[in-house]
Amino acid sequence: MRKEMFEHEITLLRDTFRRLLRRHARTNLSKLIQKTHPADLSVIFRYFSDEEQEQVFALMPLDESTGEFLSELDESTLSELLEEEESDRIALIVRESNSNDQGTILNALSEEKTQSILELLRQDEQEELEEILAYPEDSAGSLMSTDFFALRQNTKSHDAIKTLQDQDEAEMVFYLYITDDDERLVGVISLRTLAITPPNTLLSDIMMKSVHMVRAETDQEDVAQIVAQYNYLAVPVVDSDMRLLGIVTVDDVVDVIREEATEDFLKMAGAGKDREILHKSSWENAKARLPWLFASWLGGIVAATVIGAYEHVLQSTIALAAFIPVIMGMGGNIGTQSSTIIVRGIATGRVDFGSEFKLIFKEITVGLLLGGLYGLLLGIFAELKFIDAPPFLGLVVGLSIGLSMLIATAVGTMIPLFLRKLDIDPAIATGPFVTTSVDIVGVLLYFVIATSFLNL
Amino acid sequence: MRKEMFEHEITLLRDTFRRLLRRHARTNLSKLIQKTHPADLSVIFRYFSDEEQEQVFALMPLDESTGEFLSELDESTLSELLEEEESDRIALIVRESNSNDQGTILNALSEEKTQSILELLRQDEQEELEEILAYPEDSAGSLMSTDFFALRQNTKSHDAIKTLQDQDEAEMVFYLYITDDDERLVGVISLRTLAITPPNTLLSDIMMKSVHMVRAETDQEDVAQIVAQYNYLAVPVVDSDMRLLGIVTVDDVVDVIREEATEDFLKMAGAGKDREILHKSSWENAKARLPWLFASWLGGIVAATVIGAYEHVLQSTIALAAFIPVIMGMGGNIGTQSSTIIVRGIATGRVDFGSEFKLIFKEITVGLLLGGLYGLLLGIFAELKFIDAPPFLGLVVGLSIGLSMLIATAVGTMIPLFLRKLDIDPAIATGPFVTTSVDIVGVLLYFVIATSFLNL
After folding, report:
1. Residue from A44, A98, A297, A327 whose CB has the most chain B CBs within 10 Å, to mutate
2. Which of A64, A268, A293 would you mutate first to test chain B, the one with the most B CBs within 10 A?
3. Beta bridge partners of A185
C-alpha cells in the first residue's frame, strides 16, 4: 500500500517538473526545487534526459541541500553531471556542503577537475579536503563526517550544554566525545546523560570509558557490522594515536549495508561488483560479466572433452544423452543453494568459527535426502520413458543424479568455507567455482557409472 | 584488520565464559554477564551447547539488558531457550524490557506460552502487549517502539525541554512529535531546533508540518526504504485516524535491511526465505529447498524429452551430445546475471518505472556481444576437437550458444520486470523461471539448428 503511495508521489513530482521544464518556467522550477527534499530530487532525477538534468541542476541553489542532493545521486550520474559543470560553481557548492557530501562529490570527479576545484578554495578548506580525499575508497575515513562534537574531559556539564547549543553545524549530534589534553579519545557521553546531569559535574566523571572506535583505514563493511550489532547511531574514527578524526553516522551505514548486499549479489552471479552496472553502457556491462562466463566456458569445454571420451558409451546407449541436462541442472542448483546459504551466513555472522564440520555434515544430509528423492523420481521416469534402452538405465540415471546432488552440497558448502579461511571474499569466488566444478564432476560421474553398469 | 580484532575479542570472551562454566563459578559468571554488552552476549551464545546456554541464561538479571540480549538472538535459538524457561521468569523479564524487545520475545513463543505469560502481568500491561502482538509479522506495527516523545502543539518550548529532561524511558529520542487535541500527528521538531528556540515559543510555530509517516500495517521493507532514502533516525507510525502509535527507529531498520537482503539471496537461489535456515534441521532445510529443485527437475524432464525426440539426430552425429552442457551452462549463467542485475536494481530503486524497454535493449546488446564472442570461441573449439564430425558442427554449436545466450539475457531481463508488473516478488520467482526456461529453450534451439544445418 505504502509503496504505491510513494511511487504515486514520485510520479506526480516528476510530471510537475517535466511540465515546468517544457514551459521553461524557470521561476516556478526554482521554487519547486527549493520545496523538494534533496533525496526526492535525486530519485526523480533518474527520469530526466541529460538535457533536463542540466537545466534542473543549473537552477539549484548554491547551498548545503544541493550538496546533499549530489551525494544521493548514483556515482555515474554524478560524474556525468559535474564533468559538464563549471569548476567555479562546483567549488561554491562544495564549500557549503557538509564534510561527508564533500568527499562524495570530489571522489566522483576526474583528478584534473578535482584539482581545479581545490585551487578555487581557501588554503584551510583545501587542506581539509585533501585529507578527506587521501583515505582509501570504502574506508571509514572516506565515509566519516568531520562535523562531530568533542570536548575536553575537564569541561563541566553545563558548559558542555552551552557549547552544544551554540553549535550551528553538527546536525547529526548523538554523542558527546571526550578527549584528553592530547586530543586522544578517552570517553563518550550520550546527550541524554548530559541533559540530566547536575551542572557542575566534570565530564570525565560521567563519561563511559570503553568506547568502540575504528581506524580511518577500517573497511566500511566492518564499521557497518559494529553499528548494526550494537545499535549505535555513530562510531568514532581515530588515527593511530587515538586522536579523534571524525564519526561515521548510522545513515551512512544504512547505505553501506545496502550497497554491500548489492555487490554480493552481483559477485555471486559473476556480474562484477559494480553496483551501478545498470547505468553503465552495454560494453562495460559485458566486460564486467565476461570473466565468470569464461570460467564457465572453460568448464563447458572440459565437460565436452569428458563426453567426447565416452563417445562409444553414448553410441551404444543414445538415451544417456537425454539426461545430461537434468544431472547438471540439479547438481548445479542444489550446489548453488548450499553456497548461497553459507556465503550469506558468513556475511551476517551466522556461520560461527569452529562449526564448519557440523555445517558440512548437515548440508550433506540435505544432499542425501534430496538426492535420494530426486534420484528415485528420475530413475522411474527414465525406465518408463526409454523402454527400449538397457534395463539398467533407470538405475544409472537415478544413482548419478543422487550422487551428483550429494557431491554438489558438499562442494557448495566447502568452497565458501575454504575461501574464507584463505581470506578471499567467498561471494566473489563461489559462483564460478561451485557451478563449474559441480558440472564437470556430475558429467564425469554419470559416464563412469554408466560404463560400469551397462557393462560396456 | 578490524575484523580480526573483533573476532579475537569474541573468542577471548567465549573462552572466559567456558572456563567459568566448567568451574561452575556462578558469582564470577554473574559479574561477567553484567559487564558484557547484550549484543556481544548474543554472539558468543551461538558457541554454547544447549546446556551451557541454559546455565548462562539462568544467571542473567531480570532487567532491560536481558530483554535486549534476547531480542538480539536468532529467532530459533530464542524459541528453544524460552520454551524451556518458567513463565514467571519470562514475565518478569518482559515487564522490564522496552516495547520493541517485548514484541520480539513474545513473538518467538508458542501461543500457550505467550498466553500464560500475559496472564501473569497486570491488566494494563496485558492490553498493551496484546496490541503489539496483533500487528502482522514484518509490519511497521510489529517493529515499532511505543517509547516515543510527543507533546501537544500548544505547548511552549521551555516546557517541552523540561518534560524531555524528566523523561526516563524513551532512550532513543531523536524527534519531538507534535499532536493536536485529538492526538493526531500534525508535526515534528528535531531536538536541535528545540534546544535553540526562545523559551516561550509555541511548538506549533516551529514544527515542520510535512511529516513522513507510515501506517501500522505498512511492510517493514517500505519503512526501511523511507528511512534509507531520507536519512531519518525514526519514522512515526500512525493508525487510520492519524493518531500516533509508535516509532520505528533506524537501528531496527538496519536489521531489517540485512534480513531482507538475506531473504532475497535465499529466494533467488530457491532455498526458501528462512534467514535462519542455518539453524534448522537438515530435514526442514531440505523441505525449504525442495520446491525449486522440483521445478528444475521438471525442466530437466522436459529437456530429456526434447533430446529423446531428436535421438535420430544424435545417432548420426554423436559429437553433438558433447556440447549440451556448455550450451546450457552458458545460457543459464548469463541469464542469471541479467536477472540478478534487474532484481537487485528493483530492490534498490535503480530500475525506474518506464525504462523497461531501454533495459531489455541494453541487456540484449550484452547478450549479442558475449554470445557472439563465446559462440565464435566454441565454434572454433568444436571444429578442432571433433575433426571427424560433419563440417557444419562448429557452425551449429557456435550459432546455438550465441543464440541461447542472447535469448537468455532477454528472458533474464524480462521475467523479473514482468513479475514486478504482476506484483509478485521478482526475487522469489526469478531463479526457477529463468534457469529452467533458458535450459529448455537452449536445448530445443540447439537441436533445431543442428537438424536444419546437418541436413538430416
Report:
1. A297
2. A293
3. A179
* Residue among B2, B262, B318 whose CB faces A218 most closely: B2
CB of B165 within 8 Å of a chain A CB? The answer is yes
| Partner residue opposite B307 with nearest CB, options A195, A262, A322 | A322
The single residue listed with the C-alpha cell 551505514 is A253
> Which residue among B196, B296, B330 sits closest to A330, beta carbon to beta carbon?
B296
| CATH T-level fold of B277-453 | Tetracycline Repressor; domain 2 (1.10.357)
Fold of A150-249: CBS-domain (3.10.580)
Shortest CA distance from A361: residue in chain B: B282
What CATH architecture does domain B2-134 belong to? Alpha Horseshoe (1.25)
**Chain A, chain B: beta-carbon pairs less than 8 Å apart:** 344
- The residue of chain A nearest to residue B442, with distances taken between CA atoms, is A325
Top-level class of domain A2-136: mainly alpha
ipTM of predicted complex: 0.83
Return the C-alpha cell found at A437. 566444478
Q: Which residues from A are below 8 Å from B39, CB to CB?
A: 229-231
Selected residues 23-62 of chain B with any CB under 8 Å from a CB in chain A: 37, 39, 43, 46-47
SS3 state at A244: strand
Interface of B with A in 366-385 (CB under 8 A): 366, 369-370, 373-374, 377-378, 381-382, 385
Q: pTM for the whole thing?
A: 0.83
Q: What is the torsion angle, in degrees rounded to the nearest 10, for the CA atoms of residue A121, residue A122, residue A125 and residue A130? A: 70
DSSP three-state, residue A272: coil
Return per-residue pLDDT of chain B as tens, 456 residues. Answer: 345 556 677 888 889 999 999 999 999 999 999 989 898 899 888 888 888 999 999 999 999 899 999 998 988 889 989 988 899 999 999 999 988 889 889 988 998 999 999 999 888 889 888 888 889 888 999 899 888 888 999 999 888 888 877 775 555 577 889 999 988 999 999 877 787 788 888 999 999 888 889 999 999 988 998 898 888 889 999 999 999 999 999 988 998 988 888 888 888 888 877 777 777 888 888 988 898 889 889 999 999 999 999 988 898 888 899 999 999 889 989 998 999 899 888 887 778 767 788 889 999 999 999 999 999 999 999 988 877 778 888 999 999 999 999 999 999 999 999 998 888 888 877 777 888 899 999 999 999 999 988 765
Q: Taking the domains of chain A in order of start, what are their residue ranges?
A: 2-136, 150-249, 277-453
- The answer for A 86-145 residues in CB contact with B (under 8 A) is none
Nearest to B292 among A1, A192, A333 (CB): A333
Tally the C-alpha atoms within 13 A of residue B419's C-alpha that lie toward its C-beta.
20
Residue of A nearest to B197 (CA): A165
Distance CA B182, CA B406 (A): 61
